[in-house]
Structures are given as structure tokens and as C-alpha cells.
Design a protein that fits this description.
- The protein is α+β, with helices and mostly antiparallel strands.
- The protein has two domains: 224 residues, Arc Repressor Mutant, subunit A (Orthogonal Bundle), CATH 1.10.10; 67 residues.
- The protein is built from eleven helices and seven strands.
- The strands form two sheets. Strands 5-6-4-7 form a four-stranded antiparallel β-sheet. A three-stranded antiparallel β-sheet has the order 1-3-2.
- A hairpin with a 2-residue loop joins strand 5 and strand 6.
- Helix 2 crosses helix 4, helix 2 packs across helix 10 and helix 9 packs across helix 11.
- This is Phenylacetic acid degradation operon negative regulatory protein.
Length: 311
């Protein structure tokens, strides 16, 4: 981006200086947004060529890719002196799971039902297991409404069972579905939302996102350089992903009035689709070069952010 004299290039350079992305996290954004929908395979040189313009040097990118292999996200294949990296089954599951939060967002309606996880004492190692379980449930969007009791108004019970399986304690917690009886004089769980989820901090992040990327909108109506468009798409999606993956995704009826996440999501979708065609040209040219596993774009992509706007 440093060599680009375009207004969009200068704006992105300012954003990169203000908040430089981390190499490994940026690699995950590339894999999930750009590569999974093209078969998930890319040469190491392609990763470097695509992400170096975002301020990440080759050494850090190599290290990040090696770590993603070690953590099971990627599988590596040697082809002479070159390395081809393919999203693993685990990597595909992770990206598919994150896609709901990134591209779809919270449900507009809610039937009033909750998924609850109740955790009794876990024996001698209870404290460590509780701490890890609380961390995992919080990442999935659950809030702790009482000691040992976690709740979410949208999360599928399967997500809670998967967390318990992952931690090796599937038989040490209860996963329940329920509806509160506040109409009979009790305290509605939804009233605890400000205490159980950090909505004020999250709202601030959404407002900051809109301030960062809002000025880009008026720069995108002219023909775009494909390399600029791709770098902008990656930074946009990467910044968005860092926010929404920490958003508990409470249904719209539970959110405060004028929730800034709605405007931020609309802005992200508008910019994303304005960048998309030009960014795909650059991706095809780099990731598709000498890569037989690079597949045509999956049609499912066109449902992202509420669907591609009509021309």
C-alpha cells in the first residue's frame, strides 16, 4: 500500500499505521474470507504476495503459517522447493462457524427461549475447569447470570455440548433449554444483559469501526485498482472480524435502541460489495496462479452481508 498514490491507498495506509494487524490473525482472515470459497489451497508465496502490502513481512507470515499448521488449521504439502497449504477439515469447520457471526449477524426475532449451561462442582480440579469453561462459553457468547450458570438466547445447544466435549467434561455439566417466567413476578433474564455482556464496550468498538471505514464509501465509486481493492477488503474484513467474534450476538429485541452494531454492519456490507469484484481479480491472479486446486468462487458467497446488492 505504501507505493499506491490513490486516495484509497492513502486512507488504508493511515489505518494500518493507527492499528497494525497481527500476522497470524490476518492469515486467518485471508483463509476464511477469500480462500475457503475458492477451495482453500494456496502456495506460501501467494500468501506472502497477498498480505505483505498490509505491512506484514515475509518472516512473520512464514511463522504464522507454520503455527496454523501446528494448530491444525492448515495442512502442508511439499512440491519440490515450494509449499502448498490447504485448509484442513478443522480449519473449514472453524471458518464455517465464524461465518455466521461475520456475515449474518444477530437474529431479528427471538422466541424467548434460552440455552443454559449449569455447572455443579467438578471435584479437585474444579476451579481450573470452571475457568476454562467460562472462557470458552464467553467466546461462544454465553453470559454468566449466576455462579456456575451460563445463558445465551440464541446459541444452539450443540455449541455448548461441543465445548464440554472439547474440554473433556461432557458428563460434568447440564445443558438445558428454558424460558423464564418473569410474567409471574420473577426477574427476566434479559434484564441482566448489561451485567452479563459488555455491551457498552462493544458499542464503542462498533462506533470506532464506522469512523475508521465510513470515509472509504465515497472513494469507491470510481474504478478500483485490483491490488488496492484486495488489500482494503482484507483490512475491512479483518477489523470487522475482530469485533464480531467477541460480540455475543444477542437477538435484536434484547439490544439497546439505536444499537451501533446495526449501522456498522450495514456499512461493512456496502463497502465489502463495492470492493468485491476488483478484489477478486487480484485474488484470482495471485492465489490462482499455477494452482490447480484453486476453484471457482462458491455461489454461497453471494449471500454474505444480506446478499449482493442488485446492480
Amino acid at each position: 500500500m505504501a507505493n499506491s498514490p490513490s486516495p484509497i491507498g492513502r486512507h488504508i495506509a493511515r489505518l494500518l499505521k493507527e492499528d497494525p494487524p497481527r500476522a497470524k490473525s490476518l492469515c486467518v482472515s485471508l483463509l476464511g474470507d477469500a480462500l475457503a470459497c475458492h477451495g482453500g489451497a494456496i502456495w506460501l508465496g501467494g500468501i506472502i504476495e497477498l498480505l505483505e502490502p498490509l505491512g506484514i513481512n515475509e518472516r512473520l507470515l512464514r511463522t504464522s503459517v507454520f503455527r496454523l499448521v501446528a494448530q491444525g488449521w492448515l495442512q502442508a504439502e511439499r512440491h519440490g522447493r515450494r509449499s502448498l497449504y490447504q485448509l484442513s477439515e478443522q480449519g473449514l469447520r472453524h471458518t464455517a462457524h465464524a461465518s455466521q457471526r461475520i456475515y449474518v449477524g444477530p437474529a431479528a426475532d427471538w422466541n424467548g427461549e434460552w440455552t443454559l449451561v449449569a455447572l455443579p462442582r467438578l471435584g479437585n480440579n474444579g476451579l481450573a475447569e470452571r475457568t476454562e469453561l467460562r472462557r470458552e462459553l464467553a467466546w461462544e457468547g454465553f453470559g454468566m447470570i449466576a455462579p456456575g450458570l451460563f445463558a445465551h438466547p440464541q446459541a444452539d445447544a450443540r455449541a455448548a455440548h461441543d465445548i464440554l466435549e472439547k474440554l473433556g467434561i461432557p458428563d460434568k455439566a447440564l445443558v438445558l433449554s428454558g424460558r423464564d417466567l418473569a410474567g409471574a413476578g420473577g426477574l427476566p433474564i434479559a434484564s441482566l444483559a448489561p451485567q452479563c455482556w459488555s455491551l457498552d464496550a462493544l458499542a464503542g468498538q462498533y462506533r470506532h469501526f464506522s469512523r475508521q471505514f465510513g470515509p472509504l464509501e465515497k472513494l469507491l465509486d470510481e474504478p478500483l485498482d485490483p491490488a488496492d481493492a484486495f488489500a482494503t477488503r482484507m483490512l475491512l474484513l479483518h477489523t470487522w472480524r475482530r469485533i464480531v467474534l467477541h460480540d455475543p450476538q444477542l437477538p435484536v429485541p434484547m439490544l439497546p435502541e439505536r444499537w451501533p452494531g446495526h449501522a456498522a454492519r450495514a456499512l461493512c456490507g456496502q463497502i465489502y460489495w463495492k470492493l468485491f469484484d476488483a478484489s477478486e481479480q487480484h485474488l484470482d491472479a495471485v492465489a490462482g496462479r499455477d494452482n490447480e486446486r484453486y476453484t471457482p468462487l462458491s455461489p454461497a458467497v453471494y449471500t454474505r452481508f444480506g446478499g449482493r446488492p442488485a446492480a
